């Protein structure tokens, strides 16, 4: 996860990423909150509840593309009030595609992420061994 967060940050922060990192379900397996894993480049909220975009990605096992976070209202977990859009991609493991965590990327630009970005990020996680290759990825727009 550290290598992926660093590589994505190095490749894309000048193109608009304001933050990227991973969240995994908290130890103990109760599934009520997620904790921050490796991330770049500023501090982030941790732990976070499952009511936000990361929680939705975790619970649904779907990638979430949020063109404008202002449409989310109170369900948005705002770690940086300057962020305007977000993409969350689940780490799917095993033949059933069980979600073990999410990759979360934020931007200060509206409409910064596309379906193609979500698919590409899922492929990066597969190549890095963080997700099972070939797991079917569904994409939800919020």
In the predicted model, the low-confidence regions spanning at least 5 consecutive residues are none
CATH superfamily: GAF domain
CATH architecture identity = 2-Layer Sandwich
Global mean pLDDT: 89
| CATH class wording | Alpha Beta
Q: State the distance separating the first and last CA atoms.
A: 26 Å
Please explain how this structure is put together.
- This protein is α+β, with helices and mostly antiparallel strands.
- The chain has a 7-stranded mixed beta sheet, sandwiched between helices.
- Helices cover 23% and strands 32% of the residues.
- Strand 2 and strand 3 form a beta hairpin.
- It has a single domain, classed as Beta-Lactamase.
- The relative contact order is 0.21.
- The radius of gyration is 14 Å and the shape is globular.
- It is built from 3 helices and 7 strands.
List its salient traits.
single chain, alpha+beta, Beta-Lactamase
Task: Produce the secondary structure layout.
Layout (H helix, E strand, L loop, with lengths): L1 H11 L4 E9 L7 E8 L7 E2 L3 H8 L2 E4 L18 E9 L4 E10 L7 H13 L11 E3 L1
Parallel strand pairs: 4-7
Antiparallel strand pairs: 1-2, 1-6, 2-3, 4-5, 5-6
How would you summarize what this structure contains?
The chain has 142 residues and is an alpha+beta fold.
């Amino acid at each position: 996860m550290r290598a992926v967060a660093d590589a994505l940050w190095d490749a894309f922060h000048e193109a608009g990423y304001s933050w990227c990192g991973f969240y995994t379900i908290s130890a103990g397996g109760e599934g009520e909150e997620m904790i921050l894993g490796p991330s770049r480049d500023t501090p982030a909220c941790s732990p976070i509840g499952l009511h936000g975009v990361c929680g939705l990605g975790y619970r649904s096992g779907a990638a979430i593309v949020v063109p404008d976070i202002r449409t989310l209202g109170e369900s948005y977990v705002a770690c940086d009030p300057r962020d305007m859009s977000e993409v969350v991609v689940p780490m799917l493991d095993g033949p059933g595609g069980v979600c073990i965590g999410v990759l979360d990327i934020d931007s200060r630009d509206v409409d910064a992420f596309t379906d193609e970005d979500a698919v590409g990020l899922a492929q990066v996680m597969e190549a890095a061994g963080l997700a099972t290759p070939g797991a079917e990825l569904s994409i939800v727009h919020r």
